[in-house]
C-alpha cells in the first residue's frame, strides 16, 4: 500500500492570521497532485509579471476547448466529439474529456490563448493596481506640527 506524505499545517494556523487561503491552496494541491496528470502542462515565467501555461492537447480543435476565468480560478476544459471512422484495433491517442483548474494569485488576468501544433498556450499577466504598489514617502524638513483636535458638542435646541 502506497503511503502519502501530507504536510500538517496545524502549527502554522496557531501563529498566523489571514493565511487560511494559502494553507487551503497547499492542501488542495497535495490532494490533486496524485489524482490526474493528464493532459500534461508546463507553467513558464516569461518576465517579472508575465506567465504562460502550455498544455499538450493533441487531437483537440479550438472548438473542443473552453477556457474560463472566474475570480482567482482559471478552468481549461476539453471535450472531443467522437468520430466514427471505423473500428479501432488499437487506441493510443488519449482523447478523453478533461477539466484542469489553476489557482491564480490576486490581480492575475488572462491576456490571450492560442492553439498551435497541439499545444494550447494561455498568456497570463499580473497587474498590481497603483493603490497596491509600494510608494516612497518623502521626509520633509521643518518641525512637525499637530493641530489639536476639537470635539464640538451638539447644540441643544431650546
UniProtKB/TrEMBL annotation:
Keywords: Stress response
Superkingdom, natural source: Bacteria
Iron as UniProt keyword: no
SHSP domain ranges (all copies): 32-142
Keyword presence, Cytoplasm: no
Family listed: Belongs to the small heat shock protein (HSP20) family.
PANTHER family the UniProt entry points to: PTHR47062, SMALL HEAT SHOCK PROTEIN IBPA
Name assigned to this protein: Small heat shock protein
Organism: Rhizobium johnstonii (strain DSM 114642 / LMG 32736 / 3841)
Lineage, broadest ranks: Bacteria, Pseudomonadati, Pseudomonadota, Alphaproteobacteria, Hyphomicrobiales
Amino acid at each position: 500500500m502506497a503511503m502519502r506524505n501530507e504536510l500538517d499545517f496545524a502549527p502554522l494556523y496557531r501563529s498566523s492570521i489571514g493565511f487560511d487561503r494559502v494553507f487551503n491552496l497547499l492542501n488542495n494541491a497535495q490532494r490533486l497532485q496524485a489524482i490526474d496528470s493528464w493532459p500534461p502542462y508546463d507553467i513558464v515565467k516569461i518576465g517579472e509579471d508575465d506567465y504562460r501555461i502550455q498544455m499538450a492537447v493533441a487531437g483537440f480543435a479550438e472548438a473542443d476547448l473552453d477556457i474560463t476565468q472566474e475570480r482567482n480560478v482559471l478552468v481549461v476544459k476539453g471535450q472531443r466529439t467522437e468520430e466514427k471512422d471505423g473500428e479501432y484495433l488499437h487506441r493510443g491517442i488519449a482523447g478523453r474529456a478533461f477539466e484542469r483548474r489553476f489557482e491564480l494569485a490576486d490581480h492575475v488576468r488572462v491576456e490571450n490563448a492560442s492553439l498551435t501544433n497541439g499545444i494550447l498556450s494561455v498568456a497570463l499577466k499580473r497587474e498590481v493596481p497603483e493603490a497596491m504598489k509600494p510608494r516612497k514617502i518623502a521626509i520633509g524638513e521643518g518641525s512637525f506640527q499637530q493641530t489639536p483636535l476639537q470635539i464640538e458638542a451638539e447644540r441643544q435646541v431650546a
